[in-house]
Amino acid sequence: MGFVDSALDEAGLLNPHVREYVAHWAEVTGAARIEVVDAADDARLVAEALEAGELLPAGEGRYYSRSYHKDTARSEERTIVATNDERHQGQYNNWRPAAEMRELLTSKMRGQLAGKTMYVVPYLMAPQGSPLEKYAAGVELTDTRTVVLHMIRMARVGVSFINDLAEPDSFVRAVHVAGDLPNLGQGTPEDQRYFVTIADERTILHYGSSYGGNALLGKIAHGLRQAAFDGFASGEFLSEQFLLLGITDKQTGEKHHVVGGFPSASGKTNLAMTLAPDALGDRYHVEFYGDDIAWIWPGEDGRLHAFNPEGGVFGVAKDTNELTNPTALHSVDEGSGAIFTNVAYNPDTQEVWWEGKTPQPPADVTGWEDWKGDRIADRSESEEGAPWAHPNSRFTTALSQVPNVSPAYDDPAGVPVDAIIFGGRTRDREPLVRAIHDIAEGVYDGLTLGAEATFAAEGVEGQLRYDPMSMRPFMSYAEADYAAHWLKIVGAVSQPPIFAHVNWFQRDAEDGHFLWPGYRENLRALLWLVQLRKGEVEGRPTPVGILPKREELDLTGLDLPEADLERILDIEVDRWRQEMGFRQAHLEQFEGLPEEIWEAHRRVAAALDEA
Q1: Any alpha helices (H) in 32-144, and if so which ranges?
Q2: Which of these, 532, 530, 498, lies nearest to 303 by C-alpha position?
Q3: C-alpha span between 562 and 556 (Å, rounded)
Q4: Residues 234-267: pLDDT tens digits?
C-alpha cells in the first residue's frame, strides 16, 4: 500500500488520523490509485470528465450529466441511522445497531474499487473559524469523479481544512462506493443499496448510488443527519433542514434574519431565493444565505445565531423559471460552473430544458434528448406526454453564483435569528401567517408541521402527512429527545426569536383558485412578522396564534379581492378542532415527549374549545 502514502505525501495531507483512515479503506476496497482533491483541481477534473463522457457541455462554463435511470433520488427506505445505543431509535430514523451495519457495509464495499481510483475529498461544512468548526470537518472517499465535482460546488474542499484541525481526529469518516448500478435491484426485495450514518461513531457508509444526497456525503448525511446527532450529543446546536434569508430595510438600515422549515413541495427554495415585490423593491432588499440546511446555536449576545453549512445549492429544476425563482435561474447562467442532472439536453445546441422552464417545450425537437438520453423525435404517440426532464432533475451551483447571496454567507459568526417559521402546503386550515411568542408552543407547532398530498388514498380525508420541523427523512435520534433539545437550545437565549407558521397555498373551495399570489409577494407576510416582533403592530389574537389585522399587512401595489384577503387572515375553528385530534395521535407516537409540549397542545385545544 505504499502508493497510498506517496499520494498523501504529494498532496501535503499531514493529519495522521486521516492518513490511517484512507489507508484502511484503500485496503478494504482494493483501490488501485489514490487522488487527493482540492477545489483548485476543478477545471482539470471537469476536463477529464468531459473527455470520459461523464459530463457533457451545456454552454460556456456549464455541464450536463445523467445518472443511471433507476438512481434519481434519495431513497428514504434504504437510509439508516445506526448507533451503539437502542435509545436513539425513533419513529422515523430507521435505526439499526452500529455493529451490524458496519459489518454489512464493509462486506459490500470490499474489493469494489479494484482497478479504480479512490478520490479523497477533504471538506468543511461550515465557515472556517466558526464556533462549530469541530463538527464540520470530513473526508469523503468516493469512486465517482462527478461526485467530486459536485462536492467542490457544495462544500469547502482542500487539505488545509483537515490538516489544521484543533482536534486532529475530529473529522467525519465518509465512504461512498457507487457499486454496479444496473445490478443492485433498486426498489425490489433484493435491493442491495444501503445509505448508513453510524452517528455515534461519526462514520457515514453509502453503497449503491451515485446520485445527489446518496453520494454527496457532506450534504445531507453529514451536514444534516450527522450534524443533528452531534448537536444533540454535545448539547450545543441544532442542525435543521431550514432555509436562511436576510431582509434589509433600506430606509432604516435595519436587517432581520429568518430561518424556516418546509416539507417537500411547500415553497422552501423559492422563498429562500426570493426578491422583494416590485412595489416594495425601493425599500426592501432580500439576501440569500441558504435554501436547505441551517446550523443554529445560542450566541454570547443572548440571541440564536445561524449559518448555512453548505457551499452551494443543489436545487430542483422542475418549475424553476423567471416568475417562480429568477434568482435560481440566474445562478446557473453561462460561466457559473453549474452542473445540470437529469434534465432534457440537446447535444447539437448544448441547451438544457425542464418542465416549467418555459410554458411549452421547444417546438423544434431536432436533437433534443430526454433525461434518459432517448431522442424526443423518436417518441411514439403513447410517449408524447411523458416528461422530458425527470421530476427530480437538479442543478448544482456554488453559493457565490447566486445573484443576491449575502456578502456575509461565509461569516463564521453566523447571523442573529429574528424569526423561525414553518410552512406546509395546505388548502384550507392554515392562514397566510400566524405568529407564536411562546417557545413551547412554537416548538409544538414545528413538531406538528404537515402538508397535503397525504392520506386521502387511505380514506382519511383532510389529514396531513406530518413532518416535524421538516426533518422527518433526516431524524438521527428519538423524537422526544429532539423536542427536548429544541426547548433547551431556544430556551438558552435571553432574546428568543418569534415563531410563525406561513401558508401560501390556500385555495377557494369552489373554483380552486389560490387566494394568495405567492412567490415574491410572500415577503409581505415576513415583513409583518418582523414588525410584530418589534412591537410596531399588535395583530389579532386567535387560539392558534396572532394573525395580521387587515390594515397591518403592507399590500402596496397588490390588487387582492377583499373576500380572498378576509379568508387568508382568518381561521376555521371547526377545522382546527378536527386538526387537534390528528395532532394528538401524531404526538402520541413519541414516547417520553416533554411535558411542555403536551401543555402547549392542551392550551391550544382548550382555546379552540372556548372560541
Answers
A1: 42-52, 98-109
A2: 498
A3: 14
A4: 999 999 999 999 999 999 999 999 999 999 888 8
